User: Fold these one by one.
Assistant:
Number 1:
Amino acid sequence: MIVEQVVKEILSELRETFKGAEPVLALYWRERNGLKVLTDRGEKWIPLEEAGAEGWVLKLMASVLVSDWEKEKESLPVNRSIQGIPGSWMATPLMGREEPLGVLSVSSPKPGAFDEQHLQLLEQFASNLSLNLENALLNAGLQKQKRGLELIRKINLQMASAPDLQALAQAALVGLAKLFEADEVWVELTEQDLLGERSEKAKYAKEFLSQAIEKGTAVIAEELEPDFPFRSILSLPLKRGFKTLGAMAIAFHAPHFFDEVELFLAETLAEQIALAIETFKFMEEKGQRVWLLSILNELYSTISRTLNPDELGESAGGLLAKVFPSKSGAIFFTSKGETKMVARWGGKLDLPLETIEAHLKSPGPFEITGPEGRPTLVAPIALNDKAMGFIVLQDTDLSQEETLLLNSVAGILAEALQKIQIHQEMENRLAEMATIYAISQQIMSSLELPVVLETIVEVLKHVMDCRAACIFLLNEETGMLEIKASSGITSHWRTQAKLRVGEGISGKAVALGRPIYVPDSLLEPDFIFFDRSVRSILVVPLKVKGKVIGTLSVDHTIPNAFTPDDERFLSIIAAQAAIAIENAALYERLKERAVALEKAYEEISELSRFKSELLQNVSHELRSPLTFVKGYVELMREGYMGSLTPEQAEALEVVSEKADLMTRLVEDMIALQRIEIEKLKLEPVSLEEIARFAVRSASLMARNAGIEFKLEIPPNLPPVMGDKNRLVQVFDNLINNAIKFSPNGGTITIRLKDIGEYVQAEVEDTGIGIPEDKLDKIFERFYQVDSSSKRKFGGMGLGLAIVKSIVEAHGGKIWVKSQLGKGSTFYFVIPKA
């Protein structure tokens, strides 16, 4: 899977998971000490010191959650993230097998958008992404390297067939442009004019070429000032041994940051160009170019047909046997620290390998004296200072032409071996990825912890062909490591085997937090045997969020059973296993929580039902007596039941007011019940008509309070989808509130606005205002801003609760802004029809 595809998929998944949030993937670039930032809008490079919060997380190597950036900014060591200043933000590092890969972050413009559960989910994303990303980056690099080496092989053929030095340099120039897709390329030979575009740009390029020739090392500039004719350039010397033959340069019009693969390919091509120049010059002097070209073309033809190092060695050996029929010779290839003979011709060879290997970093062929004084010529097979083998000829008395040929063959073999190694590495990596993917699918196929654990060990035992596989998990209560799953271990040990942290190989792996390999248990002091047949064991820790929770181990009945590749493979599986274990444990916790929540919900539902029935009964039981009380009080006040003294009339007026208050309370309680139970009758309605109706209804009360109404309503306001009667109730309650809390008169302004998907309404007064610490509570049922026994304004605190319930039932939202002593403004929005 290529890097671009992995990035695209993860960004899409993150955006789908965290609605309304913006994800960022920042890859760590160690060579440049910076981050390569990838978003849907493209990519950019940022130095680590300028990477803000993401750079901080990379240095910290720990997850960070900032729920409210504005409130927490004083405690943060940075003032922004890569995306700017967010409302809320979270990030987690991406860990590779050996070093950090980068940072995964998500930002939202809204404060409080993320909590610990969101962060835990992001960490799960990061764990899964790290494996896929590391493999994708590695494969992308290998593929790029393989394509580059194949192109270099073709460039070599072009240079080898060039009729003169100018044509050779021109072939190198064309190859440079193709290999790097560069905007400008130049080649300068010490005895030739500069090749490439001859313009003002060439003057600047010549400075870098001269520096490379003078210093004998690469010269890199990746972000030149805008007034340069190019923004980035790489210049390399063309060297053979200690002799510099010229320099080459590639340049880009935009800033370009050369990665490891590009630098490797550039160095390889520089070596090949220098070798081609040296060979051409020498063979031209001796008149041997046709002979050399035929031999090299035959070797290149062989290289193009095989990806097997043994076949490559045999073919090259057969070719050299024809060139040097009277000499004894051999070809050796070195791989993974082992040197192997792949071809041999002529008589008996006496080879002092230790002496040969000590000189393998020599820049060219060298002579040593073999046993019995036999002269031996060694041509190192090396690429970019990496020893890959050598060619040996004994009883030699070679001409300069033959020595140069041997050196050319060694260079071609080095290039071919590099190509084969890359191909093999890609094949191995793809096979490993397929195996890991298959294992991961099996591991992730269940969320039941026992099933997950047993699946891991069964699959591992089969894939690694070992005696046994085992999982120890740390019991946090006892501090002991206990076997929770195993395959190949007797049932007795599954229940009895327990280790302290630091005890046994698994205990040591937990204590140290790193893999431990014992190649031979008989040579390990104090080795704890659960089974005497175990000769070698490999243990890797299981980690969740940097914390070791146990170990994953495999063992075998033979010594030296496992390799570094096995350790790396088991570490990858351990990372996947730890995620699966954590997911299963989380699933168990969620199941327990779901059961508890279901029980709590049933209890709350029962209480809510009792409450509703109680309120309904109380409301209906109070309504009838209040109606009678109110009726008789009015009859008495109007004199139908006899004349009243002034004191009696005043007392009855108080009774009438209290009865009205109780009636409104009962009506509010019934209204709340209806909102919860009854469905809204939604239809397209005019919020303007509703607002004007509410103002007319409250005009008498407003005049008595010395208040004027002001309406600010734009023409052609679109209708909303609403229940007309309920929306009238919203305006009534807000306007009544505004009148009640404006004891000194003033103005109440009603505004309506079209704000996209909603129509927004505002009710603004010039009253007493609300303290800031009370604003988030005023929509709660029965809440009073002034709850003291001496409070000035009456009411039961249900009006705003009713308003909130109605607005939210419409799919809208309500909020308030207020200044003490200056008034309040209530805002609410209702979706358009």
Number 2:
Amino acid sequence: MSKPNAGRTTKRLLKANRLPCVRVWQSRSAYPIPCCALNIVKKRVCTIEIIIGNMPPLTLGTGTQVMEYLTADEKIEHFFGNLNEYSATGHNIPNYHKVVRLGIGGMIEEAQLNLDSSKGEKKAFYQSVLWALEGLQAFILAYAKLAEEKVQECTDTDLHNKEHYAAIAARMEKLAYEAPQGLLESLQLIFIVNCALHQSGEPMSIGRLDQYLIEPYEQDIAEGRLTQPQAQEIIDAFWLKMDETVLYNRQHMEDYLNYGTGAVFYSAGNFPQGSALNQWVQQVTIGGYLPTNSKKPKDGCNDITLMCLRSARRLPLNAPCLSLRVHQAMKTPLHEEILQEAAMSIMSGGADPILMNDDKLVKGLMASGPLQLADARDYVCDGCYEPIIGGKSEWAFSYVPILPVVGMAMNQGATIAGAGWQHLRGIKSGWNSPAPEQITSFDQFLDIFFTQYKWQISKFYNTLMNSYGALWDVCPSPLFSAMTDGCMESGKDMTNGGAEYHIVAPMMCGITDTINALYAIKKMVFDQETAVTTLPELLQALWNNWGEDMQEPFHNVMAGNGRTEEVALRYKQLRQAALALPKFGEGNSEDVKALAQQVVQGCVDIIHDGINKPVKSVKKAYKQLQKQYDLPERKFEFVVTPGVGTFEDNLGLGSGMGASPDGRLAGDPIADDFCAAPSPADQPPKTEAYDIYQCLQDWNIEAINTGLSNAAPIDLNIKEDFPVDELTEVIRQFADSKLGSNLLTFTTADPETYKQAETFPEKYDLVRVRQGGWSEFYIAMFPEHQKYISRRPFYEVKSPGKTSRS
């Protein structure tokens, strides 16, 4: 088919034909990226495979490869907005309930019926969906054809393989046209659709697998087609397929990223890639409440929930990432088995499952915007851990780092980063607030801090309102839209406002460091009983990186070495005073916890006020969007879920930040997500473990539990001898909301294990750690990331069963 370079409609239809060609490559090392930029992945069917299909070896860190369809002029035009054919956002979940219920043939029929009865842009949209689904159909048939070829290659005596390949061919041909029946066909269809989405540049995730599969599984069991061990083997096979492209040796990585890749906030840009070499957004969510509107929620845990946990425990993989939704009604024997299996899975070393508290998150989601209760109870993890509404939403996020705002509040709107001979007091990035000499109380300082943050959040909303919809002209999503509620009903692509929900999340990156920095200012400057410095002197210390980089214009280098060393020593002493203060997440200060409540709640309020009571220009732009995207049956509104996610980027984010009042040096990592701060990079790691029950109370406050509806992850390091029964109890108390926050993860490895893995990687190639929203093989990480993981605090049981401070 010829593809003329004309008009928006043509571009959108071309996107529909982005599905990859498939051909056979003999080995992993032979996999090429062709110069035409077609996303070609090797197609193979093996004798021992149960689930068929191949994920492309392309990740968030390495980038994607897609078919390019923009003209030369269009490429330049959209370059201004950092957008191109690679800009699909991903990080979302198709409606796999619909996929399993209708099958590919049923979805094609739906698209054809809509096409026949529509006009104009709607007709173009349905045409693009139809072509995309036909491409998916051809993609599935290609595997059927390959299996048929394998049948012909088998000898007459090779009956087992011949029957195996014949069964694959029949199954794949059926799935190209008909709805699946039973567990194997349903899971096969889910996986092959997932492969197709990834190969067309849409890194999507899986969602609530136990809810998709429980009905076909129970039918198989009832009709005698399947036993429980056979079902477990099918789930295991799916787990293996999801991880077969893993990169163990970072020296073999490729960098395909370009200026437009992954526009997660309607515009792309460079981000810390090196931390995401094995992150291809593969998230399975299990457990939790069912999607009901009843006052009393109904539990959704089932046999598939257990099977997924067993696969995660028994198979030493880093994908798929598994999230277990827990809640206070988990009191039955099945629930107890699930909690125990979760603890054993964590102790197996895979850093799975992520634990999510339904009672806290559902309440938080309901306070975040116009959501149905049933949909809030049906949340899934987007690909890392962020709660979204699977099969019904588009979602976007953006970093709005909060730690630099502390420096801006001290520094009249300028960041500490960049201070020196080039930018003088720093990069001017916010409100020209009062000079430090004019700030006379901590309350005044905190008001300035909140005002500076309001400016940053208002800028976030201004970008959102003026960028929304930009992807529709460049990189629409017809295949994903076919599986997203609202799109087929409205005749609008997901990138054109078609989805039922529009979720956005501003991320307060560096929140732990911010709490610690504000507490340091309070105690070192404004508390009459503990003050050791003034705000102007503290600012001077930060400009000079706590005495580690004495620089002009803050220190006269002509004054001589003696004067330089004297002043530097003073700044270093101030740093030691900052480092000695209690820190958030250590569980030893009610004052720090109270400040955390005040800071987080204040920032959450600013985020919600930013869209509910917006500044004039944001309000005007929002009304324009609503005028454009409102539908007769549905008003266009954003659901805003405040978050703190750094994910795996905390090192990269910290590298661009100046010194901070908590004692952190310029360029050092910030704490990942909402974890307790690590040991300073220039000092030995802490050897004493924290009390897990006592420390987790720091996060168990309302502002965090429900205010941070995008989730507030705590990544906890535990040692290999952590008692399984105690870990089960920790999980149980977290499910009962007795421990904070609303999301917990665990990494199981001893400090010595990390050291040995760095020295003998081949012997320790199964060591995995929690890295933001996913798990990573420790040996695949760059040394800088390894060092950070080993400096995170460890937790142990010091007061069994203790859930509050004495």
